[in-house]
Amino acid sequence: MLIAIDLQNDTFDESGSSYSEWTTRIKSGITERIQKAIAENESIIYTKNLYPEFEHGNRTTGSIRFDEEIHSDFSALLDKYGDEYVKTFYGIPPEESKKIQETYIEEVEANHIIEFVGVETNICILANIMVIQNIFPHADITIDKGLVASSNSYLHDMTLEILSNMHITIK
């Protein structure tokens, strides 16, 4: 199973409000990993982060809606082959987590491997690994460090260190 976190215009498009060049280093690798999952008939879950109402006081609705959209490099593949889960903060909320558990329990029990890709390592990747690890405690969760990124390289590295101490395999 592949879980793609927040592959949105916000960080992957040059016009996104949180764009940084670090996303260009992982973009093609994530696309290749999604294509591999499709070719191998692997389930793909992806998150879409929606900004909470208080953000609307700081930015235009148009800017927020643009940032929320899945980036064009990923959208066609994820729309067709992925299963979208919406969140408004860092981690997948309880009601969405329950749906994931009910939908994928048999697959995870049979295969055990769940790989995460996306952004940001020290925020949404970390938060969603905690959610998934709690609903699938026997899963083997992995991260390819070339397919996750953060705007803060120190926090990125520290988060990978913390996750490795939580029985997450870092490749």
Please sum up the structure shown.
With 171 residues, this protein is an alpha/beta fold. The chain contains 7 helices and 6 strands; from the N terminus they run βααβααβαβαβαβ.
Folded structure, characterized:
By secondary structure, the protein is of the alpha/beta class. It contains seven helices and six strands; from the N terminus they run E-H-H-E-H-H-E-H-E-H-E-H-E. The chain has helices at 9-12, 22-39, 61-68, 72-81, 94-111, 121-135, 153-164, and strands spanning 2-5, 44-49, 82-87, 113-119, 140-149, 169-170. Strands 3-2-1-4-5-6 form a six-stranded parallel sheet. Helix 2 (22-39) packs parallel to helix 4 (72-81). It starts with a strand and ends with a strand. The relative contact order is 0.18. The mean pLDDT is 95.
Question: Could you outline the blueprint of secondary structure elements for this entry?
Answer:
Layout: E1 2-5, H1 9-12, H2 22-39, E2 44-49, H3 61-68, H4 72-81, E3 82-87, H5 94-111, E4 113-119, H6 121-135, E5 140-149, H7 153-164, E6 169-170
Parallel strand pairs: 1-2, 1-4, 2-3, 4-5, 5-6
Helix pairs in contact: 2-4
Residue windows where pLDDT falls under 50 for at least 5 positions: none
What global shape is seen?
globular
Largest sheet: 6 strands, parallel
Distance between the termini: 16 Å
